[in-house]
Design goal:
It is built from two helices and twelve strands. By secondary structure, the protein is of the alpha+beta class. The N terminus is likely disordered.
């Protein structure tokens, strides 16, 4: 059979070209590959969406992101820092705690708990139950603005809070703020997410 005869046989009654078996197989393979790629792509997207949803759910239930406003916690925290706050009512003394006041979240250091007797002398030395508190996180000691009469006993179910920058911090030394009650406590600052050059645990 010559070439001209083969070409004639590969045309239907209306003159359309009939593809060869090899061409049909190649087209089917191409379509299957496209379908497989789309299926894999959408499966990956679905897994990523589900994973992101789970992470967001866990994060919002366990942690809260808070931005630092002001310099009352310098040098530990600086204005603009973004922190992860672990939501808990069981806080440790010496840790940085977030608590609600006036519709805002304040960040201060937990100094004394229920029943503790607090004293601060003119040099800014802090005493808890008669023992001087070691405060390596301070840049300098300062009595700052203080409206309390010492010795001062921390009320029940409350925590005495002080900012690290004692000269400017407005905290439990001011009567209008006072000690943070349990229902005001948001949780402890555990991790700094911003800025990038200071990412890490918070102390």
């Amino acid at each position: 059979m010559d070439k001209e005869t083969m070409e004639k046989e590969n045309q239907d009654s209306e003159g359309y070209h009939i593809p060869s078996i090899e061409a049909i197989r190649e087209e089917l393979a191409y379509e299957e590959a496209k379908h497989s790629f789309r299926k894999t792509f959408f499966n990956i997207i679905a897994v990523l969406v589900v994973s992101a949803s789970i992470v967001a759910l866990v994060t919002t239930r366990l942690f809260v992101l808070v931005r630092v406003n002001g310099n009352s916690m310098e040098p530990a925290l600086s204005d603009g820092d973004i922190l992860f706050i672990r939501q808990t009512k069981e806080i440790e003394l010496g840790g940085i705690v977030g608590f609600y006041y006036g519709g805002k979240v304040l960040l201060k250091r937990a100094i004394g708990s229920s029943g503790d007797v607090i004293e601060i002398d003119q040099e800014g030395n802090v005493y808890v139950n008669g023992d001087e508190l070691e405060e390596p996180y301070l840049k300098e000691k300062n009595l700052g603005k203080c409206e309390l009469e010492f010795p001062y006993e921390v009320p029940e179910e409350a925590t005495f809070m002080l900012g690290d920058n004692r000269a400017v911090s407005i905290d439990s030394r001011i009567r209008t703020i006072g000690c943070a009650e349990e229902d005001q406590i948001l949780g402890e600052a555990v991790f700094r997410a911003w800025p990038l050059n200071r990412i890490g645990s918070v102390r």
